[in-house]
Automatic annotation (TrEMBL):
Pfam families: LON_substr_bdg. It comes from Hymenobacter psychrotolerans DSM 18569. Residues 3-181 form the Lon N-terminal domain. The lineage of its organism: Bacteria, Pseudomonadati, Bacteroidota, Cytophagia, Cytophagales. It comes from the Bacteria. PANTHER family: ATP-DEPENDENT PROTEASE LA (LON) DOMAIN PROTEIN. This is Lon N-terminal domain-containing protein. Gene3D superfamilies: LON domain-like.
């Protein structure tokens, strides 16, 4: 285990994700300066149910986009992995920011080919309904669930469930279950909208032949 600076936020960050942040609190401005001077990383554990979550995502500072006269900053970061927080400290020694004793978590990235095919089929339907089909073209050839998770309408709790999953196959199961539940609702909503649009219009209908 090792000590890691922590920056709790009301969101879930996935490994590989790039995250832009506006830093304004003095404690986190200090954290950014320490990242620059000492090359340290920091964790973002989701703040849920009025508490810091047990799992968090380790982040690497990529660069400072802008520094304001007030000392506030716009920074670019990249998520590198998931950690489990064994002990949480509201303040690290001689620092303004929080920290914790953390353990690195291993991840099995092996995909289930059948689940991947089913997920893609559902995603094509979902993005067609939402008018976002072009997003599929932007996915990397070997995309992971983490690459699409923020674009599936998942709740924060569901996203945290993905973070808890120790294998890619388990994450695929979670996403597939979600898509199978929401797609019928969305498709029915689209059919309802179409009926509303047609109501009152002249209809060109073919009568039954009997």
């Amino acid at each position: 285990m090792r000590t890691l600076a922590l920056f709790p936020l009301n969101l879930v960050v996935f490994p590989g994700e790039k995250l832009n942040l506006h830093i304004f609190e003095p404690r986190y401005r200090q954290l950014v300066h320490d990242c620059l001077k000492e090359g340290i990383t920091f964790g973002i554990p989701p703040y849920r149910h009025e508490a810091v979550s047990t799992l968090g995502t380790e982040m690497q500072l990529i660069g400072i986009e802008k520094t304001y006269d007030s000392g506030e900053m716009d920074i670019r970061t990249r998520a590198v992995g998931v950690v489990r927080i064994e002990e949480f400290y509201r303040q690290l020694p001689d620092k303004l920011y929080a920290g914790g004793l953390v353990e690195d978590l291993d991840d099995d990235n092996t995909q289930d080919a059948l689940l991947r095919t089913r997920i893609m089929t559902y995603m094509e339907q979902l993005y067609d309904v939402l008018g976002l089909r072009k997003l599929l073209q932007e996915l990397p050839a070997e995309y992971r669930v983490y690459d699409i998770a923020h674009h599936l309408g998942l709740s924060t709790e569901q996203e945290y469930q993905l973070l808890e999953a120790e294998t890619e196959a388990r994450r695929q199961e979670i996403v597939l279950d979600h898509l199978e539940r929401i797609l019928p609702v969305l498709l029915e909503t689209e059919r309802l909208k179409e009926r509303v649009r047609l109501n009152g219009h002249f209809k060109n209908l073919t009568p039954p032949n009997f």
